[in-house]
């Protein structure tokens, strides 16, 4: 029987600093139904090296299709290069899925990098497409699947509606050939997902490209079943990163999951990567203590900016007082907030940027358990609400080719981009060292020594916006061969 080859491109910043790559979770979910009836092989560019050599070693001559996933940015650029190589070296159709494909289906099809694009959740749509290819039937119009013959159709609400994760009875861990366990706070860590979507419509976010926001979460019993299944595959897992876009939307669900995880044996700790300030304010201090007692040790919170003007523009208008109160409740319970910040928004001036830098430093001063993310650089992705607003006002906006390879550590030119955007890659670099976050993933004598040397200067530069002559950045980039 012909094999489906799933392709995991390099992830650039997402795996930077980890001692091993994270599990290719999106491909596991996408294959959850397909793998029940078809043989599946996984090529991981992060580990497996040259794809041509890998195909020869796996003897994958009879290939039904290639399935590629990517998020916008450098991973999409790596994925595009792989797709171009496949077009030149294989006759098997190429199917794209994931966030990048959902945002840019027409661009992929028109560039000849895809034969089919699965828009939105792919578990059942990918299966329907693969079944048609296996039977040598013309796929026709599969809901949510675009092709050269059925491309650039107007998306429907159904295209973007999150998949019901509880339809997945198990994940096909058997297709993985590598361990995929990275160290986090000295614990062997893996990843899972408990919900899909987001009920909000922040204007910078890819969710704002949808006609209306959706969110759907799995119940506690299903989540514990997935942890149990993961541990059957990797018994040494001690910590789980829940990579939901927004874990805390449904308060009763989140508390039920915490109570259920508290009963897992051996005990497991966990991180929630998606949190919003006002969602978390709905949890009283007793409930937050319950979350901490269940093993929750970190929540990643999207604050985005220190400027109230910019927060209002992006529809995320929590106040500084609300941010400080959430951080106080979490740190008092023993949970570390990880505050995600960005810079380079449209209309952002020097004072707005200064407010973001001051907020970062004030948070780390007040709350020793708290971490701030590297200060990422905003990229206006076509189709998002903020991008479309820029177009309406007649400003120059970046094209697809401008943003496809841009990662979150450097800016891209557009209409009223902040004049300081050229310095933002320096700010990203120095904000890596304003606290001890690098020790979350790599902790040894040399890392601690480097952090001790870098941290005082980094904090000074970020606090006062001293971004000129970044000698430390040049030295570190030279030593790390450009990986930062």
Describe the structure in brief.
By secondary structure, the protein is of the alpha/beta class. Helices cover 38% and strands 16% of the residues. The strands form three sheets. Strands 7, 8, 11, 12, 13, 14, 15 and 16 form an eight-stranded mixed sheet that branches. Strands 2-1-3-4-5-6 form a six-stranded mixed sheet, with helices on both faces. The chain has a two-stranded antiparallel ribbon with strand order 9-10.
Attribute tags:
Rossmann fold, 484 residues, six-stranded mixed β-sheet, 20 helices, pyruvate-formate lyase- activating enzyme, 38% helix, 2 domains, globular
Write structural notes for this entry:
The structure is a single chain. With 484 residues, this protein is an alpha/beta fold. It contains 20 helices and 16 strands. The chain has helices at residues 25-30, 45-48, 51-58, 74-89, 99-103, 105-110, 123-134, 157-160, 220-233, 251-262, 277-280, 285-293, 308-313, 320-333, 350-366, 385-392, 400-403, 424-431, 445-464, 471-479; strands at residues 3-8, 40-44, 63-69, 94-97, 116-118, 145-147, 182-184, 187-192, 195-198, 214-217, 239-242, 269-275, 296-304, 336-343, 371-372, 376-377. The strands form three sheets. Strands 7, 8, 11, 12, 13, 14, 15 and 16 form an eight-stranded mixed β-sheet that branches. A hairpin with a 2-residue loop joins strand 7 and strand 8. The protein is globular and about 65 Å long. The two termini are 43 Å apart. The mean pLDDT is 89.
């Amino acid at each position: 029987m012909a094999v489906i080859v799933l392709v995991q491109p390099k992830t650039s910043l997402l795996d930077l600093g980890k001692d091993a790559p994270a599990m290719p979770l999106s491909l596991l979910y996408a294959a959850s139904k397909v793998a029940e009836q078809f043989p599946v092989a996984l090529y991981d560019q992060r580990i497996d090296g040259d794809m041509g050599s890998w195909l020869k070693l796996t003897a994958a001559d009879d290939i039904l299709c290639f399935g590629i996933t990517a998020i916008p940015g450098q991973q999409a650029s790596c994925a595009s290069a792989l797709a171009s190589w496949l077009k030149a070296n294989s006759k098997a159709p190429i199917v794209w899925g994931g966030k990048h494909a959902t945002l840019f289906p027409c661009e992929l099809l028109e560039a000849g990098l895809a034969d089919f694009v699965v828009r939105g959740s792919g578990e059942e749509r990918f299966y329907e497409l693969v079944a048609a290819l296996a039977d040598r039937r013309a796929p026709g119009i599969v809901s949510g699947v675009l092709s050269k013959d059925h491309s650039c159709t107007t998306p429907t609400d159904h295209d973007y509606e999150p998949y019901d994760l509880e339809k997945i009875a198990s994940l096909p861990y058997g297709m993985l050939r590598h361990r995929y366990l990275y160290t986090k706070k000295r614990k062997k860590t893996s990843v899972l997902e408990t919900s899909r979507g987001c009920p909000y419509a922040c204007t910078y976010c890819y969710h704002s490209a949808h006609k209306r926001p959706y969110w759907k979460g799995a119940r506690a019993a299903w989540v514990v079943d997935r942890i149990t299944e993961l541990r059957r595959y990797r018994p040494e897992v001690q910590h789980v990163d829940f990579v939901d876009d927004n874990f805390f939307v449904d308060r009763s669900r989140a508390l039920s999951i915490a109570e259920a995880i508290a009963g897992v044996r051996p005990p497991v700790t966990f991180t929630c990567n998606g949190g919003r300030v006002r969602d978390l304010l709905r949890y009283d201090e007793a409930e937050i203590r319950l979350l901490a007692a269940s093993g929750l040790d970190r929540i990643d919170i999207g604050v985005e900016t220190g400027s109230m003007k910019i927060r209002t523009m992006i529809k995320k208008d929590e106040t500084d007082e609300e941010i400080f109160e959430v951080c106080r409740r979490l740190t008092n319970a023993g949970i570390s907030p990880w505050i995600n910040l960005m810079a380079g928004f449209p209309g952002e001036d020097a004072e707005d940027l200064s407010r973001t830098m001051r907020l970062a430093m004030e948070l780390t001063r007040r709350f020793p358990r708290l971490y701030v993310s590297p200060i990422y650089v905003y990229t206006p992705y076509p189709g998002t609400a903020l991008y479309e607003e820029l177009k309406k006002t007649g400003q120059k906006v970046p094209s697809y080719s401008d943003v496809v390879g841009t990662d979150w550590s450097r800016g891209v030119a557009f209409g009223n981009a902040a004049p300081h955007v050229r310095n933002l890659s320096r700010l990203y670099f120095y904000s890596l060292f304003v606290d001890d976050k690098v020790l979350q993933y790599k902790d040894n004598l040399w890392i601690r020594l480097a952090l001790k040397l870098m941290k005082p200067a980094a904090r000074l530069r970020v606090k006062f916006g001293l971004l000129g002559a970044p000698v430390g950045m040049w030295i570190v980039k030279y030593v790390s061969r450009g990986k930062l």
